[in-house]
Amino acid sequence: MTVLLGVREQDGKYNDRDRIMQIAYTKYLNSLCNGCGLPHSMVRGDENVGRIEWHDDAICHGCAARESLAEDKNRTKYPGQLIYPVDTQA
After folding, report:
1. Residue 78, SS3?
2. Residue 1 pLDDT > 50, yes or no?
3. Are the C-beta atoms of residues 44 and 30 closer than 8 Å to each other?
4. What pTM was computed for the model?
5. Fewer CB near the last or first residue (10 Å), C or N of the chain?
């Protein structure tokens, strides 16, 4: 099994499957637009003009909470401080 699956060889070295999985993941990331995150095959080329529309009628409550925390001027901030989600209903 691979480090990407959460299991690693006892010697701490990457095995061939680790390398193959990392190459595949890198190729996948490279196939996405850095701006919008959609695949290049959907957003590049003349045949795709007008294919994608962006809508703003949905609210992500996770993003809203993160933005609210980031905009809070009274919050004490520390170098290296992480902002992470906590499920309050779990």
Report:
1. coil
2. no
3. no
4. 0.53
5. C
